[in-house]
Amino acid sequence: MGAQVNTFNTPGVKENCHFLKEVEDAQKIRRSVIDCFENAILPGLSEEERRTSLHFVIVGGGPTGVEFAAELHDFFSEDLVNIYPMVREFVKITLIQAGDHILNTFDERISSFAESKFARDGIEVQTGCRVLSVSDKDISVKDKAKGQIFQVPYGMVVWSTGIGTRPVITDFMEQIGQGKRRVLATDEWLQVKGCQNVYALGDCATIDQRKIMDDISAIFKAADKDNSGTLTVEEFQDVMADILIRYPQLDLYLKSKHLRDVSDLLRDPQGNSRKEVDIEGFKLALSQVDAQMKSLPATAQVAAQQGAYLSNCFNRMELCKKNPEGPLQFKGSGRHSFRPFRYKHFGQFAPLGGEQAAAELPGDWVSMGQSTQWLWYSVYASKQVSWRTRVLVVSDWTRRFIFGRDSSRI
């Protein structure tokens, strides 16, 4: 089902803004861009009217808004200025961001690089500004630091501030008792909570990861095989593999604390090894683990992995019912049929135009510049669903490099 554009109930957005969600949105933007230039070259217009017609505003400084602003600048500077040279000095792009920086989900080095790149390209970035309303002629914006409200006239405005829940999902959530949530909740196996044989993935849902402290007593009981009331290091290690699979936040906690072995969790407050620990000491050792829980980003990378995971589970459902491969059921008997879904982050890219891109990859590796753009080309082509689409995408890039972009109105 995916999601829809989130307007935050801002007046005038649905009526006057373009969006970056569906194929129809792209076609509408293409037509509007050409219309703005065609209107700007009409005789008898004042300079102010031409500037307004060629003022393109993007609301939202996330990856989508930044990439669109960069691509729009390249389209102007590399192609449209050759067709409309008489109005090239009137073209302006403004990016409005409510936060203090654009690309604020990326590393600070990438945010700074993107802002300096846009400054060199002449793209105006207005941070710390919130859009109050959008009319057919201008945008009402509030500077949060100064408290001032000002109007921004525009020729075209694109809204890219995040996603919201589709009405059909909202209705479904009401029916299953999730009406107070903002997005559909699933368990770690992507099954919708409160439903049987209903699964959800992608932007319409989020995984409601179970907290380890909610099951701490059951975990202790399962590990304490001799019912002694205390847990030895050996007993803890026997169930540790199942705990790591069932509660991925524990693995993140071990890495954040630079702990080499799970037995280090059972050390006393002074860091000394202990042969055994009681239930209270066990709770204390794991009390900070759930702080590592994080929601997955609403990206295609997550949805693709979830789709592959579910298809694999469905294909082996009968087999795994007979031979469960999942972790222990600490509040029940036996094992779960499947291992829970585990997301693996492969990094994220931010194309910045002018054959420049930035990337944040696993291992705290940050890359910026032209070489990163070619890396982005490689990754983008490799992620296509078939060799046919790979050839189409690469051939389109090749035609663009040789002949430029097609500026015809569609």
Automatic annotation (TrEMBL):
<dbReference type="InterPro" id="IPR018247">
    <property type="entry name" value="EF_Hand_1_Ca_BS"/>
</dbReference>
<keyword id="KW-0274">FAD</keyword>
<dbReference type="GO" id="GO:0005509">
    <property type="term" value="F:calcium ion binding"/>
</dbReference>
<comment type="similarity">
    <text>Belongs to the NADH dehydrogenase family.</text>
</comment>
<dbReference type="GO" id="GO:0050136">
    <property type="term" value="F:NADH dehydrogenase (quinone) (non-electrogenic) activity"/>
</dbReference>
<dbReference type="InterPro" id="IPR054585">
    <property type="entry name" value="NDH2-like_C"/>
</dbReference>
<dbReference type="GO" id="GO:0005777">
    <property type="term" value="C:peroxisome"/>
</dbReference>
<keyword id="KW-0496">Mitochondrion</keyword>
<keyword id="KW-0560">Oxidoreductase</keyword>
<keyword id="KW-0809">Transit peptide</keyword>
<keyword id="KW-0472">Membrane</keyword>
<dbReference type="InterPro" id="IPR023753">
    <property type="entry name" value="FAD/NAD-binding_dom"/>
</dbReference>
<dbReference type="Pfam" id="PF07992">
    <property type="entry name" value="Pyr_redox_2"/>
</dbReference>
<dbReference type="InterPro" id="IPR036188">
    <property type="entry name" value="FAD/NAD-bd_sf"/>
</dbReference>
<keyword id="KW-0520">NAD</keyword>
<protein>
    <recommendedName>
        <fullName>NADH:ubiquinone reductase (non-electrogenic)</fullName>
        <ecNumber>1.6.5.9</ecNumber>
    </recommendedName>
</protein>
<dbReference type="Pfam" id="PF00036">
    <property type="entry name" value="EF-hand_1"/>
</dbReference>
<keyword id="KW-0576">Peroxisome</keyword>
<dbReference type="Pfam" id="PF22366">
    <property type="entry name" value="NDH2_C"/>
</dbReference>
<keyword id="KW-0106">Calcium</keyword>
<feature type="domain" description="EF-hand">
    <location>
        <begin position="211"/>
        <end position="246"/>
    </location>
</feature>
<dbReference type="InterPro" id="IPR011992">
    <property type="entry name" value="EF-hand-dom_pair"/>
</dbReference>
<keyword id="KW-0999">Mitochondrion inner membrane</keyword>
<dbReference type="InterPro" id="IPR002048">
    <property type="entry name" value="EF_hand_dom"/>
</dbReference>
<keyword id="KW-0285">Flavoprotein</keyword>
<dbReference type="InterPro" id="IPR045024">
    <property type="entry name" value="NDH-2"/>
</dbReference>
<dbReference type="GO" id="GO:0005743">
    <property type="term" value="C:mitochondrial inner membrane"/>
</dbReference>
